[in-house]
Specification:
Blueprint lengths: L1 H6 L16 H15 L5 H18 L4 H10 L1 H11 L11 H16 L4 E6 L6 H17 L4 E8 L2 H9 L1 E3 H4 L5 H7 E3 L7 E4 L1 H4 L2 E5 L13 E6 L8 H12 L2 E9 L12 E5 L2 E4 L2
Parallel strand pairs: 1-2, 1-7, 2-6, 7-8
Antiparallel strand pairs: 3-5, 4-5, 8-10, 9-10
Helix pairs in contact: 2-4, 4-5, 6-7
Length: 291
């Protein structure tokens, strides 16, 4: 692997300047196919990390050249998904940026109280391994119980990384992932503790799992948008990897799926590059669709 990595070494100027180095046009090609198909932009440091990961993958596949690996990624949908999996950050946790879930709780209570018998729809648009979607589910169930309202909720979780979607759908997590992250009372209420060979694992309760679906979605592709509109959309900690133009494309795609009066949640370190007339900023990286 060291031999391959050395042959792929790139200069300090960044991904656009690597075309004169050995294999550099193929490196640029991998970075380009990633941004064109997913919106994920690689700065110089992330290109360097890509080289290391691709080197390992080439060893696994016995592919001797970066040009050969680029051809495989271009022509094989399965390997492209493996490449996406290597290049996406899937670190997440339950109740991350907890203020958003306090806001969701208040909003859901208002929305469900005003529309007795209605169904609250929430979309976790970059769901990764599912912790965000299941946190939304716990909050919505608690909101319904708190106001003693007739109604229900459904959750859609999507991601461009098909590998993580299966983990999200399974809803199985280690004790390390849930203990200290999920409040003890909610852990007892919404998770089943594994026994025997499943000791140390927790699975989301079937009553919650029945209210959620997970599927592939590319934020850059409006043709794949869900066919319904949502009361709340979470699009958190993914826009930081996009260029400004692609941020706007992603925001426009999810805003089109947001009901009037619905809430959009971005990551705390994320912001809109320009003001969008349809969205009213409410603070804490939250927005309301006003038209």
């Amino acid at each position: 692997m060291a031999r391959i990595a050395k042959s792929l070494a790139i200069p300090d100027q960044g991904p656009e300047s690597v075309k004169t180095a050995s294999g550099s046009s193929a490196i640029s090609g991998l970075a380009r196919i990633l941004v064109e198909r997913t919106g994920i932009h690689l700065d110089h440091h992330r290109v360097s990390r890509m080289v290391v990961k691709v080197s390992r993958r080439m060893e696994e596949l016995s592919i001797p050249s970066i040009d050969g690996y680029l051809r495989v990624v271009q022509g094989d949908a399965s390997e492209f998904q493996t490449f996406v999996h290597m290049m996406t950050v899937n670190k997440t946790n339950f109740f991350r940026e907890i203020e958003h879930f306090r806001i969701l709780d208040r909003f859901a209570r208002e929305r469900l109280s005003a529309r007795p018998g209605s169904r609250f729809l929430a979309w976790s648009a970059a769901a990764s391994t599912g912790e965000e979607a299941w946190t939304i589910g716990m909050i919505l169930h608690e909101s319904l119980q708190a106001i003693h309202a007739r109604g229900d909720f459904r959750i859609l979780g999507t991601d461009i990384n098909m590998r993580v979607l299966q983990a999200a759908s399974d809803g199985v997590y280690t004790s390390r992932a849930v203990q200290g992250e999920v409040p003890a009372d909610l852990l007892r209420k919404y998770f089943e503790k594994g026994i025997g060979r499943n000791e140390g694992l927790y699975r989301v309760h079937s009553g919650l799992r029945s209210r959620a679906k997970f599927r592939y979605f590319n934020l850059m592709d409006p043709s794949g948008r869900p066919g319904v509109q949502f009361d709340a959309v979470f699009l958190r900690n993914v826009l930081i990897y996009f260029k400004p133009d692609d941020v706007m494309r992603a925001i426009q795609n999810v805003t089109a799926s947001l009901l009037p009066g619905g809430m959009l949640f971005l990551g705390h370190c994320e912001a809109l590059p320009v003001k969008i007339p349809e969205l009213e900023a409410l603070g804490h990286s939250t927005f309301r669709r006003v038209r």
